[in-house]
Amino acid sequence: MVIADTIFSKIIKHEIIADIVYQDELVTAFRDASPCAPIHILIVPNFLIPTLNDVVEDHEAILGRMIILASKIAKDEGIAEDGYRVIINCNKNGRQEVYHLHLHLIGGCLLGPMLVYRDI
Ligand code: DGP
Predict the structure, then answer these.
(1) If DSSP codes are grouped into helix, strand and coil, which group holds residue 113?
(2) How far is the CA of 101 from the centre of ligand 1 (A)?
(3) Which key words tag this protein in UniProt (predicted)?
(4) Ligand 1 centroid to 119 CA: how many Å?
């Protein structure tokens, strides 16, 4: 398996430490280093897809795995019934910081309202 060098690929390869909650041949899930809620888990493909703009039909299985895993982890973490939020940030206006596609699973408390346009 060839993995390009992003901070997340190093986590996937266990080259830097992260609290990995799940890993299989397609995806890895680990706790966010800067959580914005009591539960904040990132789910990433094991190979580099930089942004959601780079997704193609061949990625259907991996994207399905990411969503299904988000639902499963939410149950495992005990936040499914009360609810949670799933977010994918894309590029500059989406405030993407790490250019390795990832899904944020966020919950464990009543979250703020959805972010909308803000003049800054
Ligand atoms: P985004 O803005 O969508 O690209 O979010 C990137 C997230 O990645 C951000 O919430 C912080 C998290 N993050 C960045 N570097 C690391 C790291 O080295 N370890 C872990 N566990 N999370 C990281």
Answers:
(1) coil
(2) 11
(3) Hydrolase
(4) 24
